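WxcM-like domain-containing protein structure dump, as promised
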Amino acid sequence: MAKLHELQTFNSDNGSLTVFEKVIPGTIQRVFYIYGAGQNPRAGHRHHKAWNALICLNGSCHVYNHNGYAETTYLLDDPKKCLVLEPEDWHTMYEFSEDAILLVVSNELYDKEDYIYEPYPNNRRSDESVLADSE
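structure tokens r here:
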């Protein structure tokens, strides 16, 4: 199941330094970020192998998560918050603020065969319902 971490942050008169380490298993293989998404939902999938860590560096967004048994919605609105998604976590990101920048760090390279787009049977939300909820 997804887990929300607070990343270790060091504050001083020179600003803040937040450290991302020992958060996902393995070696970081891929880093990307999402911005300019507005109210358009993103993702709507889970993985066979990939673990992903999501950090909203600026602004905010919501993340809906379902692992086949339980579902939770998270608000990412602080760059110290890091949501770690395990491979079985079906997720959708939505309601991006206008200034949102969502960083995603993965322990796997992109592989289209790793993606599972079929939601769990008891998943109450899909991309379509997220979009309807945010209008």
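DSSP finds one helix and twelve strands in the chain.
lmk if u need the other ones
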